[in-house]
## 1
Amino acid sequence: MSKFELKLPQMGESVAEATLTSWLKQVGDSIEADEAVFEIATDKVDSEVPSEVDGILLEKCFEIDDVIKVGQTVAIIEIAGDDAEPSEGSATEPAVEAPAIVKAVPEVIQTVVSAKETASTTTAPAQASDSERFYSPLVRNMAREEGIAQQELDAIPGTGVGGRLTKDDMRRYIEGRKQGPASTEHS
């Protein structure tokens, strides 16, 4: 049986990484092509990542809340078919089909990203904890790692849609925070 590496796909030109928010499949689960395996979140959108092949989930390479770079292997899927029906061809057949699927995934994800961005501008940000402001899992993870309290997080100005705090806003704030209070630009 051959193995297939399910990688984090490109989700737009400016997106270089995402936070793993949940696993929809467990090790040993059967997976069909185009079936969602895990969910991710970026500073722009939350989405499900589908499998490109039929098989069984062999290994999870990341845990929930881990930050994954585009192109990194997130899961290993065992592709069935070698032993079961050798007369239909070798295990390389799914690999031949995979490039067509791989080429379509970024386009599908970009469509989903665009649709969700449009939808998010028309809905109220009800997913925040104590405040009314929405924070993506990536921004929350960055705040947790830097020891930034909710009140401090609420005070950081955001440059995203509707004043939303982006990953870049957090990076600038954290850099300024490390340099000292004199160089930070928040009130």
## 2
Amino acid sequence: MGAEQYPTVRRRVLGANLRRLREDKSLLLEDAAGALSCHPAKVSRIESGRSGIRPLDLKALLDLYAVADSAARDGWLALAREGRRQRWWRDLADRLPQDFLDLIGLEAEVASCRGFQPSIIPGLFQTEEYATAVIQGGTVGPVDEQCRTRVRVRLDRQRVLTRGEPAPLQAFMVIGEAALRQEIGGHRVLREQLGHLIEIAQLSNVTVQVLPFSAGAYPGGPTPFSIYGFPPPSGMEVVSLENITSHAYLERAQDTAHYSKVFADLRGIALSPLESEAFIAARADQLAHQ
């Protein structure tokens, strides 16, 4: 029942792309079901992400869809495999919403992330004090256990930037100038956060660009989003949209293509990485003298 109610993002991405392969070959659900000797409803559940797929069945579908390249087949099989090693967030499953667990799982498994955050520093780059201030949402008083748990998870997520195996996450982030000016946590906390952001941007796998107010209107609107790319050869992507209480995930090719274009346009009007570093440093210096 749990798998039906909460299909993982990885499984939904796999299913959506299997559907794309089938449709590219102008095949019906019944054709795929025939290759698996099952009812078409089973194929429908696989394509919607409500059911996983056994490696043997996946190989049969790849044969049907004429995916012959061995590297490509390995990529599909790797995506279909549910990780058997214990994940560090498993013991928090009863304290975190499912969509957030999906986000953590995505960051642990994908090769790249292209993101836009207009008003706060992205979670992957946050310091502990800044993250605490964000999660507390301006409330005063002692930090409760729930807040401490969420901060710990946010900091643990940042391991993907410096992990050894698989290769570190390739992160490309466009950050709105508002994130550099909103004094979340106060002068000192924001100043230290900006210094940390400059340090993070020195990593070879991290690119940070600032979208200044002077850029004017920009494509896509103010909604934060991230585009996660699975490692080759699958080339599969999923878009994560943030709102106040949860994340929504989009796997359709037209959605990922749309947000890829929006992100490319944002990068085109944002400051270059070097200009962005100078801009962030100037803002940190301004805070130091206030």
## 3
Amino acid sequence: MMLAGLIALLSPDLPDGADGALTIRLPGETIRIHRGEFALPGTGFVDPARLDRLADGLAAKVDVPARNAKFAANGTIRPEQPGRKLDREAFESQFYAYFYGSGEADMEPPARQVPAKVDSALLAGLNEKVIGRYVTYYNPRNRNRSHNIELASAALDSTVVFPGETFSFNRTIGKRTVERGYRQAPVIVRGELSEGVGGGICQVSSTLFNAVDNAGLEIVERYAHSRHVAYVPPGRDATVSWYGPDFAFRNTLNQPVLIRAYAARGTMRVVLYSTESVRHHPRKVPGIQRGQIEEVRDALHPDAG
């Protein structure tokens, strides 16, 4: 009881007019909250956990990721676009001013601009010297599998990996789902024909692995299928799965590395570029001849593509 009385003495009461709402205006949406919803019980102080949840909810609506510059299909560069991020410090300052003030208040969540990581000038400057390359082939008559390979290749294309940075295939390509455009495609699981969303993705990661190895970069993470796949020589594949294996490499060079990826009409190409001043030590990797390709999925990771 003594402790409760001490808290009551030290804790400021909510001011007159404390029932006034705070109106938070978002694009196409308005949120109204009240002081009492964010007060610690029995005190006049802000509940930090509730405020954090409010800020998290606003960030989910306010934040827009920056878009890097990217090569278009015709070879031109699509310019970068800056992103937007909730300025939490400024938001909390405005919220405290409302909470310990009186009456109603109105605000738009403060946001700060987020620059793109890769701009047009950087992209153009990296397209100078080939440091690694690899080609694989697939059956273009298998339309769903071809579609998945081409979709993932487009997502991979124009990626820049900076010196010392570690590239992750799963993080770069993202989750392979129907909502993101991937299709069911034939795969082989434990020797039997099956269907899986994103079938064919492992050919993209395997082609990239061989190009990266050809460039002499450091392989950080790679897993082979449990069975031989036809699109690369034995032991030269890199299986990936959103909930399982990833392919990752580190840029150990003194310059950024640009990944160009292209898949069409049965041919999948990955070429790595950098600046003329780059110092690298390429390695020889075995190639593969054109032929009909059938995807083999890792039996240990049946959701692998």
## 4
Amino acid sequence: MSYISGGLSMLKSVEQSLPASEKKIAQYILSSPESVITMTVKELSEKSSTSSAAVIRLCKSLDLKGFQELKMRIAGDVQKPSTLEYRDIDKGESSHHIIEQMTHNGIQMLKETDEMLRREDVDQAVNEIHHAGAVHIFGVGASGLVAYDAQQKFLRAGRYAFYLQDSHLSYTSLSNASSTDVAIVVSFSGKTKEAVQFMKLAKKNKVKTISITKYGSSTISQMADIPLYTSATEEAMIRSAATSSRLAQLHVIDVLFMTYVSNYYDDVIESLDRSRAAIDHTR
């Protein structure tokens, strides 16, 4: 993709939680995105009956570098072909329709996650993982499955990484962590009680922290040194378990892992070969 996008998705994700003046600007942009692309900060503030300072604050609320990045992302959105909204599963659906809808929802979530992931944050996270004495990974429920996947990937790549399913054991392990360690916290909502507690303990021990949450301000993303985001789209209310959100979180782990492999290719290949050989001996 030759352009960045995701500005409109970001605005929709945080619109309801914004202060009044920023919310007015967000609503104006969402109602007329094409016109905003050529505007200055002053022009947008006048059109939305707010102030230049409010426009700048909105960009900060979106965790963007400035108004120029917001305009570039909106321009990318305008250039994209229109997409369908997420769809729910109704009673009595055929397997054909369920396959179609679940595939569509997954693709949408991955595309939006691509827009939310800041490339420099991914690079910084990978660098921290490489230099860490140990990588402590935490997640609850479906996010715990993602944490487990991260553990097995980075273990095979030669990192001392671990995920403990028991929260109390995780806290105990982290309480003895070194300041050279890294903690990765996975939580779609960004406010899961156990995950917040893990993040607080990591900060107390001066451990570098990486979060994987839905886009937007949350307790966990605000506390993290390096916040990484997935699409903020909420899943169907009738779901029996996390589906698209889990897929998006796994995607972020895959991005981190493959970036790590690419950046430290020779070392990783040796570790992967050793781990494969160790497993082969058990067969």
